[in-house]
Amino acid sequence: xxxxxxxxxPEDLVRALRAAGITDERLLEAVRTTPREHFVPSGRAxxxxxxxxxxxxxxxVTTQPSLSAMMIESLQLGGDEHVLEVGTGLGFQxxxxxxxxxxxxxxxxxxxxxxxxxRNLAAQGIRNVxxxxxxxxxxxxxxxxxxxxIVSAAFPEVPAPLIEQLRLGGRLxxxxxxxxxxxxxxxxxxxxxxxxxxxxxxxxxxxLRGRYGFP
Length: 215
What we know:
CATH topology: Rossmann fold
Number of strands: 10
GO molecular function, one term: protein-L-isoaspartate (D-aspartate) O-methyltransferase activity
EC number: 2.1.1.77
Helix content: 25-40%
Protein name: Protein-L-isoaspartate O-methyltransferase
Family: Belongs to the methyltransferase superfamily. L-isoaspartyl/D-aspartyl protein methyltransferase family.
CATH class: Alpha Beta
Radius of gyration: 16 Å
CATH architecture: 3-Layer(aba) Sandwich
GO cellular component, one term: cytoplasm
């Protein structure tokens, strides 16, 4: 059955996120005020306010908005955090993080994707993001420590550099698995590493590639 009308406004997306269990009002307001149509390929603008992933080339897709929101919500951002995002994509999730935290360092593997994300963020007047092109599996040690880390690609474990770059008590969220059938887990940094984590949801993600990910 595909009879429902496609969502057409940010408010439709907010309703979908509420239905998926998102309750953080600051996060919902960030979704309401961040036009996703400007963060998807031009030919996919009609799908911008549907709660669906969108292909962005290089066999990559954007994270489904409700899933992205669930991951962001687990970070419990209060507004003054220094955040690391692994996997910028076209910048929609980055924009949400930028509205919820003090600043964001985001690293993307594909230069053309990162360049488009930079244009998208600039067009929305978002200035508190530092974009990097490179191997996200190793994080961005020069800007560590981070209060929160969000990883938008799958690997069977959290890469050691990302744990090391997370401050004590900080939160990290990552899909754990081999790519295609993951458990999205939320962790806290402890004196000995990460706690055992809690399961947020099952989901499908692309693989985390790089020195500390898949080859």
